[in-house]
Write a structure and sequence with these properties.
heterodimer; A: alpha/beta; Rossmann fold; 2 domains; six-stranded mixed beta sheet; four-stranded antiparallel beta sheet; 14 strands; 27% strand; B: mainly alpha; two-stranded antiparallel sheet; 2 strands; globular; disordered N terminus
């Protein structure tokens, strides 16, 4: 397997007395969709926020493209080329698609917004992702469906030539057809060589698009397996019990002596 | 606009469906109608309302449509329009500034005192007034953005406090003369008719050149663009309006044949200049874009790296500085600054003007032209009712009713927008 784009090794994180992450190892490979699964409270969100630079780490190392890097803020992470698409999509309803995609990073020519360049690049990005569901890059976001919004949010992340995109529950609020569109888009991102992290509760989605699956159980990595080697039942067992057959944590950490 | 119902991929382009839409005039008009139906009314209700008002007052009063009165109406509308325009950045954020009227008069008082008591020139006086406005705005902005007090409360406190400041410096029952030639001239002097024509021509030609250049770039790069006919219609409408305005104002409107009064009132120049400035800021600069973004979704703006607190603070600073300009225009109209200047319903008229014109009280929506149109509506109501010799209570009731109507239109169209998704 190729070198991981991003790798966390031995990450521990506590909030006060609550030890949320125990020695977590996590890797994202280029051109692959890595699914991060786990029950509520397993530490998925905390891990994502550590990757995104929102939370610091108590211990553990952060590697990007094989180099150890120091990240202290979301800005550092964005500079590495890691974009996070959060569940509540963070788009402005009153602005159009182009304006949203360039929000905070507008192209300016001689002090004036360079609308033609922005509109052109927004269109290029959407067409490079083979987005077929959006009518015009000048539609306001208010007029978009949930799937279209998710598409715009993902396209916004891609626009900046990012190397890794983290998607937090991208299909949680979507209907069947829209979920289909977003999953196709997720697959295309990976096919372009990006490292994609998909956080999801939906096992069908996960098994459909993921190449690797990392299951968290009570703040520990229960398993890090290739998606083709496991079944839905096994993943569900990993999520709920932390082990499945010979996979997973050998001893139940909840009852283990600390 | 029913976008979700037609996700059928079209022909061979990779980005299907992203047509550069509306090639025909009919299609463009149809789309406009759809937007209206979806609740995106803009300033259409205000324009229709203005038309109705002019017709009613025109029939009801002999003097309403006289040239002298129309010119009067414009100088009356000036301070309201400028104050309402100043409120736009604050309203775009979904905030409110109740103190702007009084703060404007504090600025105007500063200018007047510097001229009267200290013999300063008008340039220094105006700059000092603007500086006072900026400081007041900074204080309000910091309290709202950093401390997180609702703007309603902060500016209500400033509304009360600054009235006290006016009283302290001017004195109970007193007033400061405001008779500097240049500043007072804004209200009582006119532009030379030839200069008026040249100004109108420059604006129309400038607008035409910009529109055509934008159109050419959009077509050349294959971007979305309106049909050529729409571009031409927009230019013609502007030319007709400006031409009619200047032509009308350039006629002699004096009752005394020995002293002709002709030309566009100077105040109008100030209003038009500020309108152009704010249109530029709101539509062509990053700052303007960020104002809309923060008003639309502050959290999204924050995540996009926009300094939300700084945008909030700056909006209040700009608002109060605009209020000072409005205060100066108001003082030019009345020839003095008194402790009551900018108090009572000055600010509420301005909020009314902005909302009537189509600026949303919920933030994120509105253009620079909206408060100008709304300000003219408010001034027309005031002027017309006064001419009909009605008791002043009717004036207040009608203005209040119109404001309520405008706010209802805003709320309803907002609901329709979220339902129709425009």
């Amino acid at each position: 397997m190729s070198e991981p784009l991003l790798e966390l090794r031995g990450v521990n994180k506590s909030f006060g007395v609550v030890h949320v992450l125990h020695d977590v190892d996590f890797a994202v490979y280029p051109g692959q969709v890595t699914a991060l699964v786990g029950d509520n409270g397993a530490g998925k969100s905390t891990l994502v926020k550590i990757i995104a630079g929102i939370y610091g780490r108590d211990t553990g190392d952060y590697f990007f493209e094989g180099q150890q890097v120091e990240v202290h803020s979301p800005r550092d992470v964005a500079a590495l080329g890691v974009e996070v698409v959060y569940q509540d999509l963070a788009l402005c309803d009153n602005l159009d698609i182009t304006q949203n995609m360039f929000l905070g990073r507008e192209e300016v020519k001689r002090g004036v917004l360079d609308e033609p360049t922005m509109e052109g690049r927004a269109r290029e990005t959407l067409s490079s992702l083979s987005v077929r569901t959006v009518n015009s890059v000048r539609q306001t976001v208010a007029s978009l469906s949930g799937g279209q919004r998710q598409t715009v949010a993902i396209a916004k992340a891609v626009l900046w030539n990012s190397k890794i995109v983290l998607l937090d529950e991208p299909t949680a609020a979507l209907g069947v057809a829209q979920t289909r569109q977003v999953l196709d888009l997720v697959r295309r991102l990976a096919d372009r060589g990006l490292g994609v992290v998909l956080i999801s509760h939906n096992m069908t989605d996960v098994l459909e698009v993921a190449d690797r699956i990392t299951a968290l159980y009570l703040g520990r990595v229960a398993a890090d397996v290739a998606a083709k080697d496991v079944t839905t039942t096994q993943i569900v067992e990993l999520i709920t019990a932390g082990r499945s057959g010979d996979l997973g944590i050998s001893e139940n950490p909840a009852t283990a002596s600390v | 606009m029913t976008i979700e119902t037609n996700p059928t991929p079209v022909d061979s382009t990779t980005f299907a469906g992203d047509t550069v839409r509306t090639q025909s005039l009919g299609g463009f008009f149809q789309e406009y109608l759809n937007r209206l139906r979806g609740g995106d009314m803009g300033s259409l209700p205000a324009i229709l309302g203005l038309f109705v008002l002019v017709v009613i007052f025109g029939f009801a009063s002999d003097t309403f449509t006289t040239k002298l009165n129309i010119a009067n109406l414009m100088t009356q509308a000036g301070p309201i329009c400028v104050l309402a325009l100043g409120l736009v950045p604050v309203l775009l954020l979904g905030e409110i500034d109740l103190s702007a009227g009084v703060a404007g008069s504090v600025g105007a008082m500063t200018s007047a005192l510097l001229i009267v008591d200290h013999g300063q020139g008008w340039v220094v006086a105006v700059l000092a007034g603007l500086a006072v406005g900026a400081v007041i705005g900074l204080a309000i902005g910091l309290l709202v953005a950093r401390l997180g007090i609702p703007s309603f409360v902060v500016t209500l406190a400033f509304f009360l406090g600054l009235q006290g400041v006016l009283l302290k410096f001017i004195g109970q029952g007193g007033s400061v003369r405001f008779n500097d030639d240049v500043l007072r001239g804004l209200a009582i002097k006119n532009v030379d008719p030839t200069v008026g024509w040249i100004g109108a021509a420059v604006i129309v030609v400038g607008f035409a050149l910009l529109s055509l250049r934008t159109y050419r770039v959009q077509v050349a790069r294959g971007l979305q663009h309106p049909p050529m006919s729409v571009v031409l219609i927009r230019i013609s409408v502007l030319a007709v309006i400006l031409g009619a305005l200047v032509g009308f104002m350039n006629q002699n409107r004096s009752r005394n044949p020995n002293f002709p009064i002709e030309g566009v009132p100077r105040m109008l120049i100030v209003v038009v200049a500020l309108l152009i400035l704010w249109t530029f800021i709101l539509t062509r600069t990053r700052y303007g874009r960020h104002l809309y973004a923060v008003g639309g979704n502050a959290e999204a703006a924050r995540r996009a790296g926009i300094n939300v607190a700084r945008i909030r603070t700056s909006a209040f600073i700009l608002c109060t500085m605009m209020a000072v300009i409005s205060g100066l225009l108001l003082a030019a109209n009345t020839g003095k600054v008194s402790p009551g200047s900018g108090g009572s319903n000055t600010l509420l008229y301005a909020v009314g003007a902005a909302v009537i014109g189509g600026v949303s009280l919920f933030g994120g929506r509105g253009r620079a032209i909206d408060p100008i149109i709304g300000g003219v509506v408010i001034a027309t109501i005031n002027n017309g009712l006064l001419l009909l010799n009605n008791a002043s209570w009717i004036n207040s009731v009608v203005t209040g009713g119109v404001l309520l109507l405008a706010a209802s239109v805003d709320a309803i169209s907002r609901r329709r927008r979220s339902a129709a998704g425009v």
